[in-house]
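Bumping with the actual sequence this time:
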Amino acid sequence: MGLTAEISIKNTEEDGATLTVSGKGLGSLIGRHGEVLDSLQYLATLAANIEKKGFYRVTVDVQGYREKRAETLRGVAKRMSEKVLKYKKSVMLEPMNPYERRITHSEIQNMQGVSTNSIGSENNRKIVIFLDGDN
């Protein structure tokens, strides 16, 4: 791909590792909403689990993208929850992968007055934020 990058193992566990990729101009490794990054992580996990008896989890992060995306998702969750409380109408978020949905569900779980549910199937699963039963 003509990219120059440095790869380091940030955190190693018995059942997994985190690979951190750093360098300049690595946006093509991230892709739109991390789609390329998720694919690279999937391939790295497959490669790490060839001839393994257990499951070895590999997390790949490029230039701190995963934490930045998590912060963005937390902000969206908070803003949309406030919107649901203000207008008393449910809000449906964009389709997300399981990791992003987990972050969003966790953030909204800490907020009073709103709840979440995932709807859809496979790559088209979305979160719906709605007023909980008390409101």
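The tokens above came from a reply further down the thread. The beta strands are 5-13, 16-23, 57-62, 91-92, 114-119, 126-131.
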